[in-house]
UniProtKB/TrEMBL annotation:
Record's keyword annotation contains Manganese: no
Annotated function: Participates actively in the response to hyperosmotic and heat shock by preventing the aggregation of stress-denatured proteins and by disaggregating proteins, also in an autonomous, DnaK-independent fashion. Unfolded proteins bind initially to DnaJ; upon interaction with the DnaJ-bound protein, DnaK hydrolyzes its bound ATP, resulting in the formation of a stable complex. GrpE releases ADP from DnaK; ATP binding to DnaK triggers the release of the substrate protein, thus completing the reaction cycle.
One Pfam family of this chain: DnaJ
Full protein name: Chaperone protein DnaJ
Organism: Fenollaria massiliensis
Residue ranges of every copy of the CR-type domain listed in the record: 134-216
SMART domains assigned to the protein according to its UniProt record, in alphabetical order: DnaJ
Length: 374
């Protein structure tokens, strides 16, 4: 089997838009109706259409990029696509000719195709302590579920549905369209049953024919250690009910971390500040510092300057899915004495002069001198 990217004559790094543009270009070039009697062109058209069936679908492309040709074995996802054509591909083929080339519609298939239910969003606010330790929270969400009375049928009872006469239960109707390239059959969603194949004669009084209802549900959410702001915790299948038997959507929990007055987060490190007095800064001391999980001792060396930063190893947060902790940084602020009386000031000046510390008291201005006179 040829490499699918080679079939479409495109790089494996091509974007979704580039793949679609290239496919349309090649499909138009090799389409059998534009190359009548050319078996080689027909074979090439089938080949590029089958390649686009895989590469034009994000999920199938992801599988192909991961597993390569093995994805086509044992009836894998791409097995049906690489050898036959889905109605999606015909949609693109006829779009190439601006809808005039038969105007084939895949709406009939799409209307009955199983579809994922809508995702549900929930905003969860936690504290920094929860980031350190991890937590579990029971939340209540509102989602769309199958109607508990009609079980999704939308009808009052089993006798309140009948086969659609317009489409004979197929959900689609076929119409012929004549074009410059010949007569083509156009398939459309049945206008009477909207593709369901059945018509409800009497609606379910609880859901008014929708087959669904909104319900509240409590769910336990596990928040891991080290979770980041705006992280999304996805819980598969806990969203709204799918359509036409499709799977439920997901519950997406968006994490918001409440501001902490004492600690600031930077990556997985924490920062805090403490104040020490002038004497502690000069002579040194051992002080207690708050952390997220208790107090620890911090040694302040002699001559510590204001805004000096100290590291306390292993007192930060856990990185996500790791078993070690990062660090806590403590910024020291030195409180300078205020409102000293004259005696205290003189004592302080003498102290610094004895230490050969240059200090010259500021000279009195004219107003201070006048004030002393009177």
């Amino acid at each position: 089997m040829k490499d699918l990217y080679e079939v479409l004559e495109i790089e494996s790094t091509a974007t979704e838009a580039e793949i679609k543009t290239q496919y349309r270009k090649l499909a138009k070039k090799y389409h059998p109706d534009l190359n009548p009697g050319d078996a080689e062109a027909e074979a090439r058209f089938k080949e590029i259409s089958a390649a686009y069936e895989v590469l034009g679908n994000a999920e199938k492309r992801k599988q192909y990029d991961t597993y390569g040709e093995s994805m086509f074995q044992n009836g894998g996802t791409g097995a049906a696509g690489y050898g036959g054509f889905s109605e999606d591909i015909f949609s693109d083929i006829f779009d190439i000719f601006g809808g005039g080339f038969g105007g084939f519609s895949s709406g009939a298939a799409q209307s009955k195709r199983p579809m994922y239910g809508e995702d549900v969003r929930y905003n969860l606010t936690i504290d920094l302590e929860d980031v350190l330790n991890g937590t579990q929270r029971e939340i209540e969400i509102e989602r769309v579920e199958e109607c508990s009375h009609c079980h999704g049928s939308g009808a009052k009872d089993k006798d309140s549905k009948k086969t659609c006469k317009t489409c004979s239960g197929r959900g689609s109707v076929r119409k012929e369209r004549r074009t410059a390239f010949g007569v083509f059959v156009q398939t459309e969603v049945c206008p009477d049953c909207q593709g369901a194949g059945e018509i409800i004669t009497e609606e379910c009084p609880h859901c008014h024919g929708n087959g669904t209802e909104k319900k509240k549900k409590k769910i336990l959410v596990k928040v891991p250690k080290g979770v980041r702001e705006d992280s999304v915790i996805s819980i598969r299948g806990e969203g709204s009910v799918g359509k036409n038997g499709g799977p439920n959507g997901d519950l997406n929990v968006y994490v918001d971390i409440r501001d902490n007055n004492k600690f600031k987060r930077s990556g997985d490190d924490l920062y805090t500040s403490v104040s020490i007095n002038y004497l502690q800064a000069v002579l040194g001391d051992q002080i207690e510092v708050d952390t997220l999980d208790g107090k620890v001792k911090l040694t302040i060396p002699e001559g510590t300057q204001s805004h000096t930063k100290f590291k306390i190893a292993g007192k930060g947060l856990y990185p996500l899915h790791k078993n070690y902790r990062c660090d806590l940084y403590v910024v020291v602020k030195v409180d300078v004495p205020k409102n000293l009386n004259d005696e205290q000031k003189e004592s302080l000046i003498k102290h610094f002069k004895d230490m050969n510390f240059d200090y010259e008291p500021k000279k009195k201005n004219i107003f201070e001198k006048i004030k002393e006179k009177f």
